[in-house]
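dumping this here before i forget
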Amino acid sequence: MANLRKIENASVSNGRITPRSLEQQAVDVIRSGILSGRYAAGGRLTETRLADDLGLSRGTIRGALQELTHEGLVILSPYRGWSVVSLSSKDAWEIYTLRNTLEGLATKLVAENVTPEIASEIKQSLETLRLAVKSGRRERIIRSDFELHRTIMEMSGHTRLLNQYKIIETQTLMFVSMAGAFHDVANYIALHEELIQAIILGNADLAQVLAANHNTADGRELVKRLRGLEAQG
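structure:
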């Protein structure tokens, strides 16, 4: 009972719980730790330490870590064990440039075909981001940011475009998590308001330009930082 209380408390601190297995709850807590930066990119994750922290068996933790490998957030390496995935400077460059291209096209398509219903849903996604920023919880902000852009992608009506976006979803989350450290959380709103306004007004050309450059500043800064770390090691 004490073990269950530990993992439940950890889950509640990261959002409302619905009935799930202990393993799935462990997945949620560890994932939250990765996206919030509590477990650093490239850092080791030991079954024993996680089991002690969460009050669960090593078998449950092992199952959770295996699930996170399928999500692309954790890797298992010979002689090293489990660790959080890390991005190279080339990875970061490829992710933000590809993301800019995909989101630019999707945003243009949505703006060209915007309806009151689409505008309402996008506004709601922006409001969700506002609430996340107000909470001050970095993992929640990252998720809300990602879901806003995912909503725009889905509204584009371009199935192949969305399928390509899904391929880089997990690495995009890691990119947002790492790049998000460069600015105050309040800036998340300012970064999105002009973009959302262009979509709602049906200004497709402006919306595409804004979306195609949305991640550039953070992307360049992250690439620069990673190149510096690579030069040191």
